[in-house]
Amino acid sequence: MTDEHQPLADKPRPHSDQKTRLKLPQFLPYRLATLSNRISRTIAALYSERFHLSIPEWRIMAILGDETDLSASEVAERTAMDKVAVSRAVSRLLAKGRLERHFSSTDRRRSVLALSPDGRAIYREIMPLALSYEAHLLAHLSGEEQAALDHLLQRLESLDLEMIKTPQHNQS
Amino acid sequence: MTDEHQPLADKPRPHSDQKTRLKLPQFLPYRLATLSNRISRTIAALYSERFHLSIPEWRIMAILGDETDLSASEVAERTAMDKVAVSRAVSRLLAKGRLERHFSSTDRRRSVLALSPDGRAIYREIMPLALSYEAHLLAHLSGEEQAALDHLLQRLESLDLEMIKTPQHNQS
DNA sequence: CTTATTTAGTTACATATGTAACCAATAAAA
DNA sequence: TTTTATTGGTTACATATGTAACTAAATAAG
């Protein structure tokens, strides 16, 4: 694949053959990032302007619609957001009246978050949109493809992605 | 945890059964987004502080390392970044001396971008890191899994993700 | 030509995000 | 207990990003 039919004495380029080149469109991290971005934007378009919700805000509502009375740090865990992002999104949601917050009586630092009636109503409107969008996406894949996708995501999610030890190179 | 093994006549919750709930950790767009983020951050850690490069900056260098003398808009196309992001990253790269720019003689609006010698040197350092990280990731997958992954990405990339027509709902 | 239109890129402004510093409450040590 | 460390969350600051408005060059129309 590297050299289609490369005439013998005529190298494509002296300094960089296919093996040492990085082809962005075939680079896995790049592909995942662009695909995921396109999907996220598309789905955000389903609710962002209609409900004035940002992606992190919706994530929090989505979690609290499913499991109620979580603390901010529990929300952070489950949404894979960091605590600062959660804090900010929560305060916006509180300001908009979509969330209710009180604090644990046993630990007065710990917040207890839940959707407000208003938030629940919005949740019930958006959630089917989100699910049907996902269904719409998956509908383009066969059963086996769907299974394979799920399997691969599980595999990749389970990797710890641990850093490769940087080839020693103390040139800093 | 709510009700482990639910006795027959005892509905889990009147208002939301599994079918109408959104389980974030199983929601495809969410899974893609978090996976891709983890990978991007990990890989960015390989070069960001060592070479003082942001992700968009590296993307541009990666493209120009592969194909030289592109215009800003061609870079934008190939990196899937928008032209504003490209403009900003390009000006940072110029400032750091990693890029050279001149303008087309036939169309004086059109920029012609290329890595500077310095940029090329950096490219040659980073690129193997990026590739070996990818290899490291893929090494955890079997040959079939890798093929399936590539196939699925191609499938998903080819979808136009077109918006589902919003169920009419003029409540704005 | 002279005036629209389109195209390439940049700039402005408002908002979002990340990192680190911070405050308050709890838990652990001394 | 008083001191010290840890944990839950928020705030500040610097940087990044998105959208829209804008400049300049090139085309197309009149």
In terms of quaternary structure, the protein is homodimer
Q: Kindly report the name of the CATH homologous superfamily of the domain at 50-154 in chain A.
A: Winged helix-like DNA-binding domain superfamily/Winged helix DNA-binding domain
Radius of gyration based on Cα positions of chain A: 23 Å
Portion of residues in helices of chain A?
A: 55-70%
- Looking at the overall shape, the CATH architecture of the domain at 50-154 in chain A is Orthogonal Bundle
Outline the low-pLDDT stretches of chain A: 1-16, 164-172
CATH fold-level label of the domain at 50-154 in chain A: Arc Repressor Mutant, subunit A
Global mean pLDDT of chain A: 83
Query: Describe the biggest sheet of chain A?
Result: 2 strands, antiparallel
Strand content of chain A: 5-15%
First-residue to last-residue Cα separation of chain A: 37 Å
Q: Trace the largest sheet of chain A across and list its strands.
A: 1-2
Structural class of chain A: mainly alpha
- Kindly report the greatest chain-chain contact and the residue count on each side: A-B, 63 and 63 residues
Brief descriptors of the model:
homodimer, 172 residues, mainly alpha, Arc Repressor Mutant, subunit A, two-stranded antiparallel ribbon, 2 strands, globular, disordered N terminus, DNA-binding, DNA-binding transcription factor activity (chains A, B), HTH_MarR-typ (chains A, B), WH_DNA-bd_sf (chains A, B)
Could you give a short description of this structure?
The structure is a homodimer of 172-residue chains. Chain A contains 6 helices and 2 strands; from the N terminus they run H-H-H-H-E-E-H-H.
